[in-house]
Structure formats: C-alpha cells, structure tokens
Amino acid sequence: TELAPPSTEIITLTRHVLAEQIHLGPAASGDLTLLLNAIQLTSKFIATNVRRARLINLVGLAGDTNVQGEEQKKLDVLSNDIMVNALRASGKTAVLVSEELDEAIIIEDRYKGKYCVVFDPLDGSSNIDAGVNIGTIFGIYQIRPDSQGTIADVLRPGSEMVAAGYTMYGSSANLVLSTGNGVNGYTLDTALGEFVLTHPDIKIPPRGKIYSFNEGNSLYFHPPTVNYLNSVKFPPAGKTPYSARYIGSMVADVHRTLLYGGIFGYPDDKKSKQGKLRLLYEAFPMAFLTEQAGGIATTGTKRILDIVPTKVHERTGIYLGSKDDVQEVIKFYEAEA
Ligand code: AHM
Ligand code: MG
C-alpha cells in the first residue's frame, strides 16, 4: 500500500491568528498579530537557549536576586532581556510587567503601541537544572481608550485581557494561546521555525482523575483544602481515588490539566497568606485559558478573573481545572463559611 502524501495544509500560529482577526472585520488592525509574532519569536529564542543551556554554561545562578528575593538563574535573566527587547522593538507595547523586574516598564514614545504585556519569562526555574519542563507565561491588555500607557492599564481584572498564553519548553516547545475565542495549541516545528497548529480548540474534560498540589505544604493548609484533598484520596466506597501528579512547574501542571482534566491547586495557606503564585502574570493568564477551555479558576471563594489587582507583583491562591472538580473545592469553602 502507498503511504499518504504529506499534508500541504500547514496552519501556522500567525495564519491562524490572522484568520481570527479577519473575522473581526476592518476594526482589526493586525497589531495584535504583530505583537504575537514578537512573542513567538521570543519563545523560539528562549526554547533554543533552554535546550543548549547545559552546553553553553547558562545553568546556575546569575548572582542576583529578583523582586521576590529569590536567586535568579542565568536563563531567567536572559529570557527576561529577550522579551523586554523584542516587545519594545515590536512598537506595539505601552507597558511591560515582568516577574523579573521590580517596576513596570513604560515604553518610550518612539516605540509606544497600544498593548500591555504582563509576563513571567521563565516560570518554574527551580526545575531548570534538573531538565524538567519550564515555560513562559504571558497576558495581554489593550491600553484604556484615553490612556498613554500607565500602570493603571495593567491593574485591571484578568477578564479584561485580550489574549493570554504560555509556551512550554519540554520535549517540544508548545505554545498555547487564547485571544478570547477558545484555546489552541501549537507545536514548534524546528525545521520550519514555525509554531504549527497541533491542538485545535482545546476543551478541558468536565471531570478528571488527577489532583496536582504541593502536599508538602499540608501542615499549613486551611481546612477546605485539607477536606478537599481527603475527599479525592479517600472517596466513598465504590469510587476510585485520584492520582497525584505535581511537577512544580506551573506551565507543565496546567498544560496537563488542560489536556487531561483534573485539578491544579496552589491555595493560600497559613504560611503563604496571600498564596504563592502571582496574580498578573501567572494566575490571570492561566485562569483565562482555563475558562476559555471550559474549566473554572477560583481562589476557593472568588473567580480569579474578577480580582482587581492593587500592585503588579500581587499574589493569589488558586485552584483551576475541570468544572466538576473545581466546583467540589468551592463547596468545601462554602461549607466552611
Ligand atoms: P517561580 O516563578 O519562582 O518559578 O515560582 C513559580 C512556580 C510555579 O511554576 C509552580 O507552580 C510553583 O512555583 C511551585 O512551587 P512549590 O515549589 O512551592 O511547589
Ligand atoms: Mg513564576
């Protein structure tokens, strides 16, 4: 039998986003497409460096500490520089917020555009040296109608984002994106240098079989978290307990949750009173994707995307994933109230 010829229908990320924008009619200027092109480029560049890190001595510490007082890895610093430079040069941004930078960057007039990008250039960096998956997370706002681009343009609820996504650097580089019209996943074809549509219209299964928490924090967990975890580990007779999967790299844990379903949680607790993960560039983009894929993202008592940030590096507790699973957590919070 003859082999089927290779498909000639290659849908790249740019083609896909352009097609979506065309549907919006003349109002769409193509600026978002250009901005997303800049983000794609940075992801390709970071992916290349992540892959070569060990060989070109990028692993280890850069000898600096970031805003949260953590040691920066060389790759964090590099990834941050790559993103700031490319986003500024795109001419499409007005405000940039990076996990690695204390203050927001207000783009100078000559390069100013109408979008604000909040990002964690390399999330999960404690995993770098072990070769575990890490990723870039980003969220995009449009500046408010009469604004020149100030911090107020990013201190807005996540529901006002126009796009959000992440790139996971694993066995392949996967970019998962939503422009508010569902979620699509693209895989980097290194030969073409293009992100190719491989996971169209990702939908989270309404219920999963996996829970993903750092249970090493159990001593500090509040009762609703403890009660929920007990319910999935010790279900009523006849039901099967859930499997535990925790990579400790948000991008990888969320990626699995989007594809397989289940629940990922990093709740606030007695030790991390505000939670650990950052609202703007970790929780918001992941909550945006989760909802766009048909799931739920909550603090336990409040929808993540409704939170109004008061500072750029604000933290939050978060549970996200399959609708039915996350609803159960919410019930444990209601029972406690
Ligand atoms: P980072 O931004 O310093 O890399 O921290 C964020 C990471 C997330 O990727 C992950 O979900 C979480 O921290 C893991 O935290 P822990 O090691 O406390 O389980
Ligand atoms: Mg991070």
Write structural notes for this entry.
Helix 2 packs antiparallel against helix 3 and helix 4 (223-233) crosses helix 7. By secondary structure, the protein is α+β, with helices and mostly antiparallel strands. Strand 8 and strand 9 form a beta hairpin. The protein is globular and about 60 Å long. The protein is 29% helix and 24% strand. The longest helix is centred in the N-terminal third of the chain and has 22 residues, at 31-52. The chain starts with 12 loop residues before the first helix and ends with a helix. The model has no long low-confidence stretch (mean pLDDT 93). It is built from seven helices and 17 strands. Strands 4-3-5-6-7-8-9-10 form an eight-stranded mixed sheet, sandwiched between helices. It has a five-stranded mixed sheet with strand order 12-11-13-17-15, with helices on both faces. A two-stranded antiparallel ribbon has the order 1-2. The structure holds 2,5-anhydro-1,6-di-O-phosphono-D-mannitol (AHM) and magnesium ion. 2,5-anhydro-1,6-di-O-phosphono-D-mannitol binds at residues 70, 99, 120, 123-126, 214, 248-250, 253, 266, 276. GO terms for molecular function: fructose 1,6-bisphosphate 1-phosphatase activity; metal ion binding. Residues 204-333 form the Fructose-1-6-bisphosphatase class 1 C-terminal domain. Its main location: cytoplasm. Homotetramer.
